[in-house]
């Protein structure tokens, strides 16, 4: 059975050594989460993950959720574990104190989110979707709705979902047919069918709050005619107690590849009473508050699944003996060497660790910027710059992290050899569970298209230029650093490849949009590769500074070694992406459809 241990030491490195959240730069935003506090919270939460949540992962996958007589039942042990999670006070850490939360920064919540997903992704989604729904309601709903629903959601006595997709429409939400008819009493009758609804129904909470995109009769076709509605599974009386069922039913549970312990449902709304969130016609805008939260959360899923797969592959490689190392036997007196001595296996593990630690740093950076926007006292220019950087990097977080996270789960399975294909080792489940992150909350192809069509041209290209200037500034400031010069030089070459590809898209993408569309996925990976190179160079610099005072610290030594590994083994990939991007779309468009 696989095991999991929260990577708290690396989380602390990201927050306090790399991002320096305890510095004067951030004022009092992080005053409640000093190193000792984060360490104590992380240790306690990590223990819950290791001892309670992770052991339910395989059994939950094998048993799955069941639907009988209109009621969905979660796997054995999930109710007790969810109650332990609630009783421990973990549900409202980053929520508004006005509604029962602790008011800690988003950054703290995202650290713990990684740990929870690594331990048990299907279980984690019940909580994660609730926090997404909380964010949309907290930001857009009336004070009356917030007072009525948020305290129970903060406590996870009631959970949340988002309902967008319908049988005939996924990405093109303008095709939504779900209707909302004004009841004349501040409520609407919601009628329609939604599919692929994660945590759509279950037995973990006494009520489920659905956020539903629907169209009123007086609004036009297309996305501009959509509004967002709060639709409880069970009606809530004015005093906050539960009333009658609200004509919300489960058509079926989807039979799917992975995340079996999470109930992915077909949801039917048959004149269900719903309440408008925000203004009519702003449904997609308001839902995207939840969607943007979800896209960051899905990116964290890519990291989390890669981390737990890596941990188990590393332990297996440290134990499994097969053959002898190419340069001679390393484990003297043994019948064979442990497979970690084989250079290819060691390289695969180092590559996974490079990805995990750079991903953790990127998620940390986005989280800190989010807190700057929400809680900072800086002027509007600082907050606007933070928003711009988040918008630019969100497709990287969602798309690149989940692509690579899945790839790493497959590599980890491969390290197990045939044992990786056997259920009891858990590796095949990690592969199956990681796959969904590339598909939902906007497929990764959509993320790549969003990057090149919206994010790169934003503000006439000023946002991406500011990002490139940050990389260039780091290179200029550190190119004389003798120990890190090879890392900096590799970063410079990769940044030049990125700039070359960007220039090509700006010129040839406008002349022929197919050139941009065909290059979108490669460009997302090129930008992700360079972003990670910049992160690794910065982490190496921090480690170098720390080693000046603590020369024997193996943790910091490993950071520099991994930075050099990334510079040698992964940054050269940038040039390959550039070549592919600049080859254009002619060879694609030349192929007749009937010959595909």
Note down, in words, how this protein is organized.
It is built from 18 helices and eleven strands. With 596 residues, it is of the alpha+beta class. The protein has three domains: 141-281, Butyryl-CoA Dehydrogenase, subunit A, domain 2 (Beta Barrel), CATH 2.40.110.20; 287-441, Butyryl-CoA Dehydrogenase, subunit A, domain 3 (Up-down Bundle); 458-595. The chain is globular. The relative contact order is 0.09.
Task: Give a brief description.
By secondary structure, the protein is an alpha+beta fold. The longest helix is centred in the middle third of the chain and has 37 residues, at 283-319.
Topology, pairings included?
Elements: H1 8-18, H2 35-53, H3 56-63, E1 66-68, E2 71-73, H4 78-87, H5 106-119, H6 121-140, H7 143-154, E3 158-163, E4 179-182, E5 188-198, E6 207-216, E7 226-232, E8 234-236, E9 242-245, E10 248-253, E11 264-277, H8 283-319, H9 343-375, H10 380-415, H11 427-435, H12 444-455, H13 462-478, H14 485-511, H15 513-547, H16 554-569, H17 573-582, H18 586-589
CATH class annotation of the largest domain: Mainly Alpha
Low-confidence stretches: none
Please bin the fraction of helical residues: 55-70%
Report on the biggest sheet: 5 strands, mixed, barrel
- Hey, roughly how much beta strand do the residues contain? 5-15%
> What's the CATH H-level homologous superfamily of the largest domain?
Butyryl-CoA Dehydrogenase, subunit A, domain 3
Number of strands: 11
CATH topology category name of the largest domain: Butyryl-CoA Dehydrogenase, subunit A, domain 3
C-alpha end-to-end distance: 44 Å
Second rung of CATH, namely the architecture of the largest domain: Up-down Bundle
The total domain count is 3
What overall form do the CA principal axes indicate?
A: globular
Q: What's the overall average pLDDT, rounded?
A: 96
Q: How much is the radius of gyration in Å?
A: 24 Å
* DSSP helical segment count: 18
Q: Could you spell the SSE succession in H and E letters?
A: HHHEEHHHHEEEEEEEEEHHHHHHHHHHH
């Amino acid at each position: 059975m696989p095991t999991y241990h929260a990577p708290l030491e690396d989380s602390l490195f990201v927050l306090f050594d790399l991002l320096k959240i305890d510095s004067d730069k951030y004022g009092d935003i992080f005053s409640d989460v000093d190193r000792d506090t984060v360490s104590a919270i992380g240790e306690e939460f990590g223990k819950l993950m290791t001892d309670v949540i992770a052991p339910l992962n395989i059994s939950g996958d094998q048993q799955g959720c069941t639907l009988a007589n209109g009621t969905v039942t979660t796997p054995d042990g999930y109710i007790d574990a969810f109650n332990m999670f609630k009783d421990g006070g973990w549900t409202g850490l980053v929520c508004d104190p006005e509604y029962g939360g602790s008011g800690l920064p988003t950054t703290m919540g995202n650290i713990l989110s990684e740990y929870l997903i690594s331990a048990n992704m299907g279980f984690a989604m019940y909580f994660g979707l609730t926090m997404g729904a909380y964010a949309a309601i907290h930001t857009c709903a009336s004070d009356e709705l917030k007072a009525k629903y948020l305290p129970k959601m903060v406590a996870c006595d009631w959970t949340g979902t988002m309902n967008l997709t319908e049988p005939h429409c996924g990405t093109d939400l303008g095709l939504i047919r779900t209707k909302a008819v004004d009841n004349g009493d501040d409520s609407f009758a919601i009628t329609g069918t939604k599919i692929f609804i994660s945590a759509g129904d279950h037995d973990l909470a006494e009520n489920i709050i659905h956020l539903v995109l629907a169209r009123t009769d007086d609004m036009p076709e297309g996305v501009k005619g959509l509004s967002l509605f709060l639709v409880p599974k069970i009606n809530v009386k004015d005093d906050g107690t539960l009333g009658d069922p609200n004509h919300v039913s489960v058509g079926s549970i989807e039979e799917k590849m992975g995340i079996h312990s999470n109930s992915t449902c077909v949801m039917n709304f048959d004149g269900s009473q719903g309440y408008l969130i925000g203004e009519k016609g702003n449904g997609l805008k308001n839902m995207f508050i939840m969607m943007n939260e979800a896209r960051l959360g899905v990116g964290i899923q890519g990291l989390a699944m890669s981390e737990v797969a890596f941990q188990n592959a590393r332990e297996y490689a440290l134990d499994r003996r097969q053959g002898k190392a190419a340069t001679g036997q390393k484990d003297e007196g043994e019948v064979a060497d442990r497979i970690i001595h084989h250079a290819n296996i060691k390289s695969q593990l180092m590559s996974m660790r490079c990805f995990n630690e750079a991903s953790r740093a990127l998620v940390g950076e986005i989280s800190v910027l989010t807190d700057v926007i929400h809680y900072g006292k800086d002027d509007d220019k600082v907050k606007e710059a933070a928003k711009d950087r988040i918008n630019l990097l969100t497709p990287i977080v969602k798309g690149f992290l989940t692509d690579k996270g899945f790839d790493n789960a497959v590599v980890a399975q491969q390290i197990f050899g045939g044992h990786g294909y056997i259920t009891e080792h858990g590796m095949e489940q990690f592969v199956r569970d990681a796959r969904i992150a590339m598909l939902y909350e906007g497929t990764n192809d959509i993320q790549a298209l969003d990057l090149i069509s919206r994010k790169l041209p934003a503000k006439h290209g000023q946002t991406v230029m500011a990002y490139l200037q940050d990389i260039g500034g780091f290179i200029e400031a550190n190119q004389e650093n003798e120990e890190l010069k090879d890392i900096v030089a590799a970063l410079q070459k990769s940044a030049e490849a990125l700039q070359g590809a960007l220039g090509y898209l700006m010129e040839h993408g406008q002349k022929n949009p197919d050139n941009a569309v065909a290059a979108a996925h490669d460009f997302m990976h090129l930008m992700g590769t360079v972003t990670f190179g910049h992160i690794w160079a910065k982490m190496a610099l921090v480690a170098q500074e720390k080693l000046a005072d603590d020369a024997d610290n193996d943790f910091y030594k490993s950071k520099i070694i991994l930075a050099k590994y990334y510079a040698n083994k992964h940054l050269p990939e940038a040039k390959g992406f550039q070549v592919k991007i600049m080859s254009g779309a002619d060879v694609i468009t030349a192929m007749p459809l009937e010959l595909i």
